[in-house]
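User: Predict Deoxyuridine 5'-triphosphate nucleotidohydrolase's structure from this.
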Amino acid sequence: MDISIADQIALDDALVDDHTGVTYGFYKGPYDLSYVVLILKSAGETKVPARGKALVLTDLSISVPKRAYARIALRSGLAWKHSIDIRACVIDADYMGPVRVILFNHYDADFEVKDGDRIAQLIIEKIITF
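Assistant:
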């Protein structure tokens, strides 16, 4: 699935794309600090081994707009309930392509990722220079 974030700038509330199931929303904060949030879902099953890591695929491909960057953020439920963490979280504006998430398992048992599991949040923010 390809999403042009620039096309979503007019959003005011969280929405769900009926075709892809991607949940996203546009938020406007103080000082014109606007950002877009997308919930990333796994595109297939993956096992994250105990005390190991795995690369989890999503069905999302992005192109980050100029003067913005994207970051992948952890879902707090995965951290609290399953000791899952994320690394390599920044996506620069010059990147175009599929989004993949690196999950780290800090627990003593394997963690199973099922197809369609919500694994992370993709946050796209403006870069403001002073």
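Residues 2-126 form a domain with the Deoxyuridine 5'-Triphosphate Nucleotidohydrolase; Chain A fold (CATH 2.70.40.10).
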